[in-house]
Amino acid sequence: MKDFKYYTPTEVVFGKQSEEKVAELVKKYGGTKVLVHYGGQSAIKSGLLDKVCGLLSQEGVEYLMLGGVVPNPRLSKVYEGIELCRKEGVDFILAVGGGSVIDSAKAIACGVPYEGDVWDFYLGKLHAEVCLPVASVLTIPAAGSEMSESSVITNEDGGIKLGYSNDITRPKFAIMNPVRTYTLPSYQTAAGVTDMIMHTMERYFTHDDDMTLTTEVAEAVMRTLMDSIFAVLKNPEDYRHRAQIMWGGSIAHNGLTGCGVADDWATHQLEHELSGMFDVTHGAGLAAVWPSWARYVYKENVSRFVRFAVNVMGVTNDFTDPEGTALKGIEAMERFYHAIGMPINIHELIGRDITDDEIKEMARKCSRDYKTTQGCFKVLNHIDMETIYQMAK
Amino acid sequence: MKDFKYYTPTEVVFGKQSEEKVAELVKKYGGTKVLVHYGGQSAIKSGLLDKVCGLLSQEGVEYLMLGGVVPNPRLSKVYEGIELCRKEGVDFILAVGGGSVIDSAKAIACGVPYEGDVWDFYLGKLHAEVCLPVASVLTIPAAGSEMSESSVITNEDGGIKLGYSNDITRPKFAIMNPVRTYTLPSYQTAAGVTDMIMHTMERYFTHDDDMTLTTEVAEAVMRTLMDSIFAVLKNPEDYRHRAQIMWGGSIAHNGLTGCGVADDWATHQLEHELSGMFDVTHGAGLAAVWPSWARYVYKENVSRFVRFAVNVMGVTNDFTDPEGTALKGIEAMERFYHAIGMPINIHELIGRDITDDEIKEMARKCSRDYKTTQGCFKVLNHIDMETIYQMAK
């Protein structure tokens, strides 16, 4: 078992009435001039932005707005936000949206007080010591960014997608109203749940088999998410299951499912190259690559894959054939992905064959020009990466 | 499903090296003059106090010490601490010990800046707006106070034991080194685990059956604790299972197992009168009263007790006889209590028959002179309380 830190200071206000608290919470956490950061039209159309801004005005909190954050959020938008915040003296960033908007908000928050280029943090050149406070009104459960310390930004210059983790960027509060997710399209809902489950799996597939408490909690989270997604695909206005997905997305990525275990993240890294190159939905990209990753690495710890097959996927344990049981768990996961409309390979993801050159290019980027490995369940070099991409074609 | 708030800002530093961080963390959270609060001799004998104080000195953090906190911590000690902190200008309270020491620290923290009697908060007369920062080096996992917002104090004047909850008292950090719990006696270890499981059960037995995510997580926590206690009773130096018990105690009571459900707490309230009157170990008192509470209330939601029996206690589900399955779950819990050395009734707890007058007196106190009900799974008035105490004789 690994020593660990667990730190989730975000105040979660969850439920149908949660939005009413937004201005009170902004003030509680010191916001006097707020950047309301958002994505596209849905937050406007739904009336949510109007509501949030109305409540801020009522309570005498100044605000300005910056929209236009896109999935796989762009560094250029981050620069725009930093400039705006500096010019207007913003002291609090409120993200109204999903993971992309929150990630963009975190990057802006780190960039405002830093004299250099905010991209330095993502390049690992140095660590931010201070940042503006960030908070969110969550509308798309998936990334878990509403409680996490991490953000992922895409630099359009070269299509480079990098993550940055820093506890000071953990949101001060997260307002979660499951009703706001009723209008999410099926594809986005399913991709979100795929991402949540992957956040759990990245920690679940570990060699630290002795932390049963974390393992059991992780299994509980995965089973519940797998049950709830079918309910909401059938009835998008199913509050119970929308709520479980929303809360499940947070606890899948706030650190709880990783206490005491070494986490892997190779699948995420492999996917970042896919969405960096093809601008696909992150969750769908994960589904396209995970089965191949799993088949490539499962022999590193067969019993862990057997446990996953039996306790999460409901596969009958063939005690005489652990490897067979493990592989059946991976197949069951592929059936699950298909059942919720997710791809299980790159062809299904991008709608055409990927070329060998594209695969080589992704492996080059994922290995940072052949200099870096990824993952720790099995440490992957650029040749392993190429092989997995080939298996996932 | 209930709307909920989830707020666990405590920075948990967990593992064999965790104590090394104590001075750094005190400084991070603003401590310059620290009251090191502790219980009896064990923290001295083990060398832990010396280590903590040595690290504080090394980092130039001033401190003074106040020991002598007893189980079911006393109001008189709280008064002593408040006076000392005021006199010496203490700005941070570091509890080195278990739940009693942390609870006492929280009470002192609220009392120092308050001009009136700190007992006012426990009587519900008003709510504390400010308090000194509290943190802990945990040595006895049980109460979950290291991450919780609550504390329980006994006023010797009348043997009145009351709890007080306030988010501002949540500890800033909690240092948890499972090795420090190797020397805990079996009885105390078992009583601690009983308390943790009860913290989960108080939230698990609910009419909010629709929050499967919370339910599954709660079951995971209970199953793991039940597994780990047998391992440590067999081998007190089993790091893996000591660690799971230590972390299990925190997540059993930090709010996670109650998200979206109405919680009950009647068993805790019934027990507070037992430990108030007989000064018994809290966890043992809970074991003595829970089976009778369960038999008295299970018909309010039989399916919940069936779920508990099957998913937590491993009872085979007799689908033709839900009530029979439910009752088998309660019996299995009694066998578990006995197997870990806990009582299952008051006679076993106090070593003699309790008198009818004593029962009436406990029911009077538990109902605050017949004015208050307890619980919500089934709302209990003083007659219900008397009946449960009689059943638990």
How would you concisely characterize the structure shown here?
Chain A is α/β, with parallel strands linked by helices and 393 residues long.
Keywords:
Dehydroquinate synthase-like, alpha domain, 2 domains, Rossmann fold, 6-stranded parallel beta sheet, about 400 residues, homodimer
CATH superfamily of the largest domain in chain A: Dehydroquinate synthase-like - alpha domain
Q: What is the percent of helical residues of chain A?
A: 40-55%
Low-confidence runs of chain A: none
β-strand amount of chain A = 5-15%
Category from helices, strands and their pairing of chain A: alpha/beta
Oligomer designation: homodimer
| CATH class (first level) name of the largest domain in chain A | Mainly Alpha
- Dominant shape of chain A: globular
Q: What name does the CATH topology of the largest domain in chain A carry?
A: Dehydroquinate synthase-like, alpha domain
What is the terminal-to-terminal distance of chain A? 36 Å
Report strand order across the widest sheet of chain A: 1-8-5-4-2-3
The string of secondary-structure elements of chain A, in order, is EHEHHEHEHHEEEEHHHHHHHHHH
Which value, in Å, is the CA radius of gyration of chain A?
Answer: 20 Å
Number of strands of chain A: 8
Largest interface: A-B, 40 and 40 residues
CATH architecture of the largest domain in chain A: Up-down Bundle
Tally of helical segments of chain A:
16
